[in-house]
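Sorry to interrupt, but I need a hand with the structure work. It will help me judge whether the discrete encoding reads sensibly. Write everything out right here, beneath this request:
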Amino acid sequence: MRPDLEITTGGTFSTANQLGTPNSEINTIYRTEALWPTMNPWLDSAKTLPNPGNGSSDGNPLYLLSKIQRVNETNRMTGNVSVKYDIRPDLYIRATSAIYYFENLQQYHQDATQTYAQYYSTPPTFSTSRPAYDYYNRTFQQQYNATINYSGTFLEKNHLNAMLGTEFFGQKNFTMQVYGTNSPTDLITTVNSSTTFISGINPNYNAGTNSNFSVKTQNSIVSGFGRINYDYDNRYLVTLVGREDGVSNLASMQRWGFFPGMSAGWNMQNEKFYKNSSVNEVLSTFKPRISYGQNGNIAGVGPYDVQGVYGNQGNYNNVGGYLNTSPVNSGLQWEKSTTTDVGADFGFLGNKITLLFDYYDRKTSNLLTNLALPSYVGFSTVTTNSGTLQNKGYEVTLNANILRLSNGLTWNVSGNISFVRNKVLKLPYNGNANNRQGGLQVWDPKTNQLVWVGGIQEGQALGNIYGYKQVSIFKDDADVEAVAGNRVDKIANITGPNLPAGPGSDGGHITPGDVNWLDVDKNDTIDSRDQVYLGNIYPKYTGGFSTDLSYHNFSIFARFDYSLGYTIYNDQLARTLGNYQGTFNYTTLQKDAWSPTNEVTNIPKVYYADQVQGAGKQNYTRGNNANAVLNGNNSSMYEKGNYVACREISLSYDFSKDLLSKTKILTQARVFVSANNLFYITKFRGLSPEPPLNSNGVINGIYQGTYPTPKTFVFGAQVSF
């Protein structure tokens, strides 16, 4: 072996096959929380035949699961190799390469199903649509990196580290799905038994959607970068960095972006005047620092978006038609974030306690935003770089060595907290107030005028929520007469008892059991202007804390994290309490709804399909929302998502060196048991209080039901030879 040459390599492979979550399965969970309280979940006394209910997805979930044949197989493979060559003691080069391969295969087939009525018809009938699909996704990534590195000292106290490098990253993706229906048999559970296939393409390209498609994409990034670290006598520290990135996602003239950065720090505790001071006995480390830098982002820009996209719009006379679905956008540029950070590192009592504090101000310019276009253009939106967003906040990390005794007992604790506040500084001019995108007008009691809020607006935060404030539930006729005798509810089209009836349900009048809405502008009319601020979808505070206790060879570790200061719209609760399907009940809460014998409550009277104008009173979702919407609903359906989560508790034992030496093989051995995601501490009424995400992994604040966060338990051993 050459002492100046070092070669390392490694690789991993994993495979998993688990139950997936197509829409039908999620829908089952969503709906079964609202089953009729009188429904017998079984068709027979032996409880062997699950009741399908009105349909396969709103009865006993065991029924649907018994009809689903599903495979969800995922394979992952990684490989890497690194070569380091020492040119001389202070100079070396390093080259690395890595690959990542991902493969997902999904197969789905639903057997013939029956409703409750079909089961008991004479003769029994079946629904034989038998939807099926085969879905395949493959991703291949490759990355190559080469650097030359220098580390040296000159004039005794001057230390310099420098690095210069280049990098290539490339990704190829292929996705394909075949969807079919009307197989003549349950015996063949692959899509090839289907007799009917969907024509046209669903542009969402999601597994399980009713579409056939194949998608092939690739993109790459080429980079050059450098870094210089300098310190004088470990007292004064300076770092300079620079990076040039070129991406295939942008047009050739906009492809490259340069992102510089710098930082400086001062180890004050290494100064003579500090070492000799009494302060050093308490404040053992004090390192103020400042940094400035830029980062680039093109997230959300697809591999071919700037070139203009064409999509299949269906067939006519068996001839496929293609249409330009997004315009050529060759002027799109890098989104740039400029961050200024001021902070300090503190150490107390010989660094038994350490504290790290950072305050940052990040301005994102050339903000990637979607600009609405006039209908005559032929495109609904276009992505632009016009906009500036500011994020300001601080981060604090605390570590403490509480115990370190001679008998081997040690106890360490740590915790951190982050606070962030955002504000839109600039948006592209569109002629609207505050250059707003979306938003609504509400009455401001402080200024006694209408103001624009919500959506995306200059001078306002992102993610603000507005809805109708539930003051109370009208308990009787006298209560309605006193508060809302002359009221007009323009949302549900109902009126108070002193006015002619509106076209809404129950004679078009407000009656006992209905919601008493806050009339913000006090004009006896409930309309969109009466909405109030109900919170924000983004956590204001995030962080975590941990504890590590050891005694001799035993150790126990626990880790928690938390999120505070955000609001979730519980759409699942609103739809089930509001009988959104028209036949469902919410068995745990609906019993507390208003009734002549239960007049004091915070849950409105039960109505058939409450969200439908003319059938219900729109007490929960104040509109007939086919799709869940964040704003404009009942304030009682917005809940604080605040939580503390127990992420990990583990217990381990390390075998002693003396014992291992007797094996003459093992150099290290450890056994452990760990538990993850044990519990949440929260008041949120859903299965998970964590900020809800949309299909793209972006926080949207709407909870529509989910599987519970899985608890995992691991027993293992680690050995070294």
Notes: The first strand starts at residue 5 and ends at 17. Residues 1-232 form one domain. Residues 23-32 form the longest helix (10 residues).
